[in-house]
Amino acid sequence: MVKLNIRTDTKKNKQLPMKQLTASLFALALFAALGFYAPAGAPADDAAGRIARAYAADFYRFQAEVGRLAALARHQAEIPLLREQLANARLAFKRVEYLFDYTKTHYNYLHVNGPPLPKIDKEDVNGDIVGPNGLQALDELLYSDEAEEQRAHIQALAAELQKSVDFIAGVHLPLSLTGVQAIEALRSGIVRLFTLGLTGFDTPGSGNALPEAVASLQAMEQAFLLFEGSVSPEARKEYQEAKKLFRKAYYLLRANQDFDSFGRLEFLKQAANPLYEKLLDFQLANGIGAGPFKYQAQDMRARNMFDENFLNTGFYSELSYAPLSNPAAVALGKALFYDPILSGDGKLSCASCHDPARAFTDGLPKSKTHIPGKFTRRNSPTLIDATYSSRYFWDMREVTLERQVAHVVNDTLEFNTDFYEIAARLRQSETYVRMFEEAYGGIGREDIYSRSISNALAAYVNSLTSFNSAFDRYVRGETGEYPADAARGFDLFMGKAACGTCHFAPAFNGATPPFYMETESEALGVTLGLDTLHPQLDPDPGRAENGLRKDARPHYLYSFKTVTVRNAALTAPYMHNGLFNTLEEVMEFYDRGGGAGMGLDVPTQTLPPDPLRLTEREKADIIAFMHTLTDTSGLTVRNVVLPEFEGHPEWNERGVR
Ligand code: HEC
Ligand code: HEC
Asked: How does the average pLDDT of the chain come out, rounded?
């Protein structure tokens, strides 16, 4: 969930048509390049054609609702009336969202239903900022105390939305769709509904999440039923079962429309996950094909949202020197990770600050460096599941795990050396020479150099994934046992406490569903000390000053990467500055609404400053849930034997650190 003062300039809006034009040309080019067409003849594609036509009709309805909203705003309608019409428009949007967001992801994010924050237009050559806009900005504003004073702004936002929707309807419809795309869109729609819809992610003001979930589910169900005439005999059973699951999901949603008490865990186990799986079964049985069409990090072959392969780690390391999945590279990377020979003075290894016994953290607020008494600038984060990310470091300054390595190597407080020196050392070990040759022989000019060293370390970090916690096993149905307090805690985490609006399922980090391509950072207003009466903001500027030109934006001040809460039981102390020693302290902080909730002036804070009003038991339940996310299976034991250096007996004294 994101809240920000959205009374920022509306001047930006004037640039919209030009941008829309660019966006549309880009989209058209993309369509042509990717060959988006519907091959005629296949029955599933007949169904897809029916779905596309129903979608177009729904889209025009959505467009009309937005038109009505803009007209009401123009005519100064009463706030309650505007709210009602916004609800209508949003409900109409929910019917088209699963296909609209699937086919027009970026446009949707920028102009229709993106978070109510300034957004950077990646397709714009200047990376220009688009101000908070669209349905979510309206939802937040219309339900704020300032709605009345903000009329002019509301009117401008509604007019802008109308323009955006009119424009996109013109270029986007009619939609041509294949069977694979239709199923894929439905499956990502289930993920969206569960991870974003039910958490209240896109209804920051109205809290109308459950009625909206019903609308989106119904639209998806109706679309699915359009396969009816195209079901092959082999797929009958899967079709009928998926149909039943849609009904079940609907009844579960209808049975409890109360946001705070809705049973999300039950919904996940009984409806969302089984449906996600059954749609795939149907796709395969009906011969629809299994080729994922959309460029995204979700691996559509996964059967369960909490399967280890649900997110494709390969997506985040597409541009690496060599595939990170190569076992020889992983084995080599593991040896390097524990080897202090990499550091200038031979005393530090990666493991010095990322200890596997502590889920690859070090238990300190800030890490010890090679200079006694000097500490790193920030807290050492867990490396387990760190790979599921488009950015690395608290301030998001690095884009790949490979490039991350250079920061450690060159940092004067950390390895304080360079790749030439490291390579020169490694070449003096026959074992290392052989391992590098096995992993990289013939790829580059040399086997041992900066890129292979970085790749091996990245391959090891990339291998540190863990989806075998008690929670994962329970939601995958591998065990029937799950503590009652943790079950309540999950419902709170994904609902009332809003944790799941930033720590997104399934990695519970900032990788944003349903396509998981981008990692988010957020400003919480983390303080310097624990004094809540006279709080002091941590002056660390975070993302705004991470050295990347495109991130040097005022709204990124004090913004930090949303890290995973998997293994949180093992990763104390918490936050970028290691402020909190316990999860109880973390809960207190969130319950107060972060820094702004404690009265600090944090204009960029994206965590809502309102207190959560959690009871003691609720806080304990959320902690109990986080405790069931512990899984270091196979990752705690170092069992590394460091390679020998034949010419340097003194180096062989070095221990694993
Ligand atoms: C002296 C302590 C120290 C050493 C040695 C060290 N790290 Fe780190 N590591 C940190 C700290 C502190 C951070 C967070 C820094 C920041 O965000 O500004 C970090 C961040 C990271 C991250 C980013 C994680 C994320 O979720 O964004 C990765 C990956 C990582 N380290 C891997 C490694 C590897 C691989 C090595 C060895 C080549 C290594 N580290 C050596 C302390 C250390
Ligand atoms: C607005 C987005 C947002 C919300 C809502 C949110 N978090 Fe966070 N969380 C973050 C960010 C960003 C960080 C890192 C912040 C930093 O270090 O400055 C973080 C850090 C954490 C950490 C520390 C992780 C570590 O290894 O240091 C825990 C634990 C945590 N959050 C749990 C929760 C819980 C529980 C909730 C719900 C009560 C919650 N979060 C709600 C964004 C959010």
From this structure: 92
Long-range contacts of 528-531 (CB under 8 A, 24+ apart): 528/577, 528/579, 529/579, 530/579, 530/580, 530/585
Between CA 118 and CA 201, with CA 595 as vertex, the angle to 5 degrees is 45
Give the mean model confidence (pLDDT) for residues 397-421.
96
Percentage of the chain modeled with pLDDT above 70: 93
Answer yes or no: is the C-beta of 288 below 6 A from any ligand 2 atom: no
Residue nearest to atom 31 of ligand 2 (CA): 565
Taking every pair of C-alpha atoms in the chain, what is the biggest distance, in angstroms?
Answer: 85
Omega of the bond leading into 573 within 30 degrees of 0 (cis): yes
* Per-residue model confidence (pLDDT) at position 656: 66
What's the confidence (pLDDT) of residue 637?
A: 67
Q: Which residue in 207, 116, 200, 123 sits closest to 157, CA to CA?
A: 116
- Token duo for residue 577: 């500055």
Please, what is the Cα angle at 125 between 124 and 129, to 5 degrees?
50
Asked if residue 51 lies in contact with residue 44, where contact means CB atoms within 8 angstroms, the answer is: no
Asked whether the beta carbons of 102 and 184 are under 8 A apart, the reply is yes
- Determine the Cα–Cα distance for residues 350 and 333; give it in Å rounded to an integer: 11
Long-range CB pairs of 527-534 (<8 Å, 24+ gap) are: 527/579, 527/595, 527/598, 527/600, 528/577, 528/579, 529/579, 530/579, 530/580, 530/585, 532/588, 532/592, 532/598
**Ligand 2: does its nearest atom lie under 6 Å from the Cβ of 502?**
yes
Contact between 336 and 461 under an 8 Å Cβ cutoff? The reply is no
Neighbours of 426 (CB within 10 A): 26
Ligand 1 pocket: which of 317, 398, 404 to mutate (most atoms within 8 A of CB): 404
Given pLDDT bands bounded at 50, 70 and 90, which one contains residue 36? very low
Smallest-distance ligand from the CA of 590? 2
Round the CA-based radius of gyration of the chain to a whole number and report it.
26
Q: Which residues contact 43 (CB under 8 A, 6 or more apart)?
A: 229, 230, 232
CA of 593 to the centre of ligand 2 (A): 12
**How far apart (Å, rounded) are the C-alpha atoms in residues 523 and 554?**
12
Classify residue 10 as exposed, middle or buried by CB count within 10 Å of its CB (0-12, 13-18, 19+).
middle
What are the tokens at 132? 């908070």
Q: Is 42 exposed, middle or buried (0-12, 13-18, 19+ CB in 10 A)?
A: middle
Residue with tokens 């402020």: 579
